[in-house]
Design a protein that fits this description.
This protein has five helices and eight strands. It is of the alpha+beta class. α1 packs antiparallel against α2.
């Protein structure tokens, strides 16, 4: 039976040991900072959601109270209260839907329903679905597609339409009557670049680097009307990440914003 050879363990110098300890401490410190930031983001997210959920819930409770107290409401008053309740319930449903979708997109086991889709057809169908919203909001909607876009993308069409819808909703929210919203696309080498551009209030330089963070929301005092609940752009980024794509924004305050999407894996049609 062959004897095992004795191998003398390598001697570690004091300097090497100190260096290893310093590196381990630095890595632990970085990991701790990351955990603190994640916890702070989680707390901020729930704070924002609590604020947004409280408003419609308070309105619903008040409306139910009115219906109980006033037994002889005129038909128009009754319908107005029902309409208010319907709007608040729709708002609540939208918030819950986005919380659920964000959780889905952060699940690594979620499988996307991928299809080969003609990009021009996808964008044209989305454009026509938005026309009623734009007319109601008194905005101008434009479509900027080359006559021969000639490309297909492999995507989950439902999820990509959700990204477009979130960006379009933002464009409506942060613009005013008479402003323009443009949906466009071009082929850029081996990628398709899509954009939604508005001529609204724009984004401040301080807010711009943070717009895709799931817990971030710009100061309400600088945004018109409902500032949203800070999840739409985070969901859009999660969806684009899962597609191996990119999303980014260029904006000038008081001049408008352009959100860009870039999708890979293009096939000739």
């Amino acid at each position: 039976m062959e004897k095992k050879r004795y191998v003398k363990p390598k001697t570690i110098s004091r300097e090497e040991l100190e260096q290893a300890l310093l590196q381990a401490n630095e890595e632990l410190s970085l990991a701790n900072d990351k955990l603190k930031k994640q916890e702070a983001a989680r707390v901020e997210l729930f704070r924002n959601l609590s604020h947004d959920l409280r408003a419609p819930m308070t309105a619903l409770v008040s409306t139910v109270g009115l219906l109980r107290e006033k037994k002889n409401l005129a038909e128009n008053e009754y319908l107005e209260l029902l309409d208010l309740m319907g709007r608040r319930l729709k708002n609540l449903n939208a918030i819950l839907d986005e919380i659920f979708l964000l959780g889905q997109m952060e699940n690594p086991e979620l499988r996307l329903e991928m299809e080969n889709i003609d990009l021009a057809t996808l964008l044209e169908e989305f454009y026509f679905s938005c026309e009623a919203d734009v007319k109601y909001g008194e905005r101008k909607l434009e479509l900027d597609l080359p006559e021969e876009l000639n490309c297909m993308v492999r995507v989950d069409p439902q999820k990509i339409v959700r990204v477009l819808d979130n960006l379009f909703t933002n464009a409506l929210r942060y613009s005013k009557p008479g402003d323009s919203i443009m949906l466009g696309a071009r082929r850029e080498g081996d990628a398709a670049r899509i954009w939604i551009r508005d001529t609204g209030v724009g984004i401040t330089p301080e807010d711009l680097p943070h717009v895709f963070e799931r817990s971030y929301r710009a100061d309400r005092s600088r945004t018109p009307g409902d500032g949203g609940h800070g999840l739409g752009l985070a969901i859009a980024k999660s969806i684009m990440d899962r597609h191996g794509g990119r999303i980014w924004c260029e904006s000038r305050q008081d001049e408008g914003s352009t959100f860009y999407l870039e999708l890979p894996t293009l096939l000739e049609t």
